Amino acid sequence: MRPPAVLPAARSGDTRLRRAAGPTIAGWAAGIVGTGLVVWSPDVLFGYHSPSAHLVLDSVDACVALLVAYLLYGRFVRRRQWQDLLLAQGLVLLVIAGIGLAWTVEASGLGPAGTLDVWLPLALRLLGAALVAAAALVGPRRDAPSSSELWVVGVPLVLATATFSALWAVRSSLPVALDRPGALAETPQAILTGHPLLLAGQGVAALCFFVASLVFTAQAAEHEDSLLRWLGPACALAAFARVNYVLFPSLYTDWLYAGDVFRTGFYLFLLVGAGREIREYWTAASRAAVLEDRRRLARELHDGVVQELSLIRMESHALPQEHPSRNRIMAASDRGLDEARAAVHALGHDEDEALGSTLHRTARELAQRYRVELEVDVDDSIDADGAQRHAILRITREAVSNAVRHGHAGRLCLRLSRDGDRRRLVVRDDGDGFDVLRATGAPAGYGLISMRDRARGLPGSLEIDSEPGRGSTVTVTW
Known about the structure:
With 478 residues, the chain is an alpha+beta fold.
């Protein structure tokens, strides 16, 4: 009985899930441990008063967010997915809220300290977190608008302008979200500092990032996306950063706190994901260029060498039957055509094609070419790398060609099976057969030598079972 093909896929799915969940579990563990130390170790100082370091972290976070947003815009242009668009917009909003917007509003005197300069960045960060969560929940859908980069930058600017206008209209009635002088004077052990709405806003943002972390991890396991894989732990750290901002709102002070470290960790994970995405993009681009060049060579071979060899074979029919070179020319033409077509096939098809699909197509091609009946029984769960697949195909072509041209076979059977960790390819024919000892000894032909060498390179072995008058069986085991 053929082994079920779903078992390798199930194992592959479990492996992908473990790979995707590993970094996310690490991010959650770091957030839980760090936040636990802050809450249950009140005697340990977790804050550091440094306005310059605060500014450096804010600048680094903004630069990374812009880089990843630009990368996401490139993905959006290629894939037209809502997820990429919403993620890019969310990051742009986080950049707008984090490039000194609070200090700019405060320095411009647009409202009392602790009101507009706190509520505006909070609202924009909350909108950015909501867009990140929406990107996770939307998933990889391909119905995004096909417009320009204005969708990435324009929507966040419109949201920021609308939020500022709304808060400006009610600026006189805005409560004091945070007493900046008091917060700056306090040590970082002081927790739950600020207006209840300020704490609630950070809590809602944390919930958005928690949801995004779990959903992105599940999607990374399903779609094998490097950027999604690192978005899981990144959003986990972003969520714990908001939890720590509930404990102490260092985001609006000169204190560096655990929340600021987790927030920077969020952007560093994004940077790692961006690096992986860039590397995969250029790898895919170079591979596409190689494949296109291979297809070009395949077309040149098909339209040049194959056509010329076909012409030589056709013209050889015009030679008299008794001409001593007629049969040799036709045999050489046949061998050249087979080699050229094998090269066209190898150059013109994707190297990632499954072994079963390749054998099925090769069998159909050989059956049509030699006008024989070729039965195929292939276990589709068996796979091989590019070098192994090429060797197996060449052995199959040589075995079928020998059976038809030398053994005058009319019916062949090709079987690919599995026996534990061993794979076995069998080509059996009903031809004339031959003396194996004489054919495989010192005067063995190049075709049999080539088959044996290719089998050894798998690594594996080649066995030939044949007798005159009862056909032959070629078995490759690796």
